[in-house]
Amino acid sequence: MKSLEECRARIDEIDNEVVDLLNRRMEVVRRVGEIKHESNSAIYRPEREKAIIDRLTKISESSGGLLNSQAIEAVFLEIFAVARNLELPERIAYLGPEGSFTHQAAESRFGAMSDYLSLGSIEAVFKTLEASRAKFGVVPIENSRDGVVGETLDLLGKSSVKIVAELYMPIHMAFATKAEKIHHIKRIYSKDKGFGQCREFLTEHGLDVVEHIPVESTAKAAILAAKDPEAAAICSHIAAKLYGVPTLFENIEDTHNNATRFFILSDFKNGISGEDKTSILVRLKDAQKAGALVHFLEDFNNADINLSKIESRPSRDNDGFGYWFFIDFFGHIDEPKIQSLIQKHADEVTWLGSYVKGEL
Ligand SMILES: O=C(O)C(=O)C[C@]1(C(=O)O)C=C[C@@H](O)C=C1
């Protein structure tokens, strides 16, 4: 068996090779960037990144390597983020403030080195993209406990920006405070849903009787708790760390399979990856007529296209109780069977994006 010094010497040798290989990779990436600039094509290609991760996972598994698919993904997402920055530094707008769960989601996809812009509302993210002040936007779309984020759905219906990727992120809450003892805590800040998700924890620790102050985001809660030694925040542990509030308890949520789905927004169409989802918005012409939605959905069934989500929204225009439907299904908009279905309903359907199916 090798000694620690021998192991470290070997690690140093291997790291030298890794850096040399990464530099060689980045030389090629730079050329890809030039080609893309000439043809004015999109830098971020989620379907290509997925194909690379899948291929490398297979190679690693079949050669008995120690890296599993999550490890390969974690390493390569950072490599892709550096590569994209080299091709063209692109700004990413997200629903802030810094340390929000959306910020965490954005960093998990765009890495630590990107240029981020924290914005105060989902609408501001859409507006920033429409005005080309950022290339990408990251917004929440639904939570496994609380359901859909209506504001995101409504804005997708009105805006020209497209969904280019989805990602699912487990949501864990931390309890952070500068108070030395729990019984010194007089108030707790969080987003309204933060309190709802941690009810059992609050009762168990006698914290259901202190004042609960709902604020716009869990990150804002951490900012407020940082300034007040008699306060606590229910927030992400990243926000607690960022704003210097010690975390007293982690994972305090009542159910531990809580997850949020986020959309990455931009202005281009992805290629087909073979494992895609598509989101559309449907305004049925005869929505008041019995069976209008059923007939529409029957066409999906006949074409053997599986739906993964359908959500109705009030149309809010002046046709009384009009509705539109947000529908997710498996497949890419450019696949022939989907094209023929969409063309049949062209007057009613708005395409919102086709993107590689995300996994939790
Ligand atoms: O293949 C491309 O289109 C690239 O730009 C290269 C690369 C990579 O690093 O492999 C980088 C960014 C894209 O999102 C996909 C892949």
Automatic annotation (TrEMBL):
PANTHER family per UniProt: PREPHENATE DEHYDRATASE P PROTEIN (PTHR21022), PREPHENATE DEHYDRATASE-RELATED (PTHR21022:SF19)
Pathway, per record: Metabolic intermediate biosynthesis; prephenate biosynthesis; prephenate from chorismate: step 1/1; Amino-acid biosynthesis; L-phenylalanine biosynthesis; phenylpyruvate from prephenate: step 1/1
Stretches assigned to the Prephenate dehydratase domain: 91-267
Organism of origin: Sulfuricurvum kujiense (strain ATCC BAA-921 / DSM 16994 / JCM 11577 / YK-1)
GO cellular component, one term: cytoplasm
Chorismate mutase domain ranges (all copies): 1-91
Lineage: Bacteria, Pseudomonadati, Campylobacterota, Epsilonproteobacteria, Campylobacterales
GO molecular function, one term: prephenate dehydratase activity
Keyword Methyltransferase: no
This enzyme's EC code(s): 4.2.1.51, 5.4.99.5
Keywords: Amino-acid biosynthesis, Aromatic amino acid biosynthesis, Cytoplasm, Isomerase, Lyase, Multifunctional enzyme, Phenylalanine biosynthesis
Pfam families per the UniProt record, alphabetical: CM_2, PDT
Chain's role: Catalyzes the Claisen rearrangement of chorismate to prephenate and the decarboxylation/dehydration of prephenate to phenylpyruvate.
Alphabetical list of InterPro entries matching this protein: ACT-like_dom_sf (IPR045865), Chor_mutase/pphenate_deHydtase (IPR008242), Chorismate_II_sf (IPR036263), CM_dom_sf (IPR036979), CM_II_prokaryot (IPR002701), G/b/e-P-prot_chorismate_mutase (IPR010957), Preph_deHydtase (IPR001086), Preph_deHydtase_CS (IPR018528)
GO terms (BP aspect): chorismate metabolic process; L-phenylalanine biosynthetic process
PROSITE patterns the UniProt entry points to: CHORISMATE_MUT_2, PREPHENATE_DEHYDR_2, PREPHENATE_DEHYDR_3
Signal peptide range in chain numbering: none
Name recorded for this polypeptide: Bifunctional chorismate mutase/prephenate dehydratase
Feature type site, description Essential for prephenate dehydratase activity: T260
Compartments, as annotated in UniProt: Cytoplasm
